[in-house]
Amino acid sequence: ALGSLVMDTFTCDKLNIGALGNRVPQLHLHVIGRRTDDPAWPGPVWGHSEARAYAKAERESRLGLLRDRLAQSGLLIPPR
What we know:
Blueprint: H1 2-10, E1 14-18, E2 30-34, H2 56-73
Antiparallel strand pairs: 1-2
């Protein structure tokens, strides 16, 4: 369900899921929507290009969109 949500929301060609926890003690997953026109395609995104922070407005827009889609799907876990 989460994979479909990401692919549909961001119009992805492929989905990568990675469980990397080298810097934080808890399990966390990276769900990465990929498109054939991304600079790292078809290789992994880790270590390919310099990280780029989203501008505040773009970050807030994407987070809002994801929160809405997660709430609609029933996958949103409210903060405690």
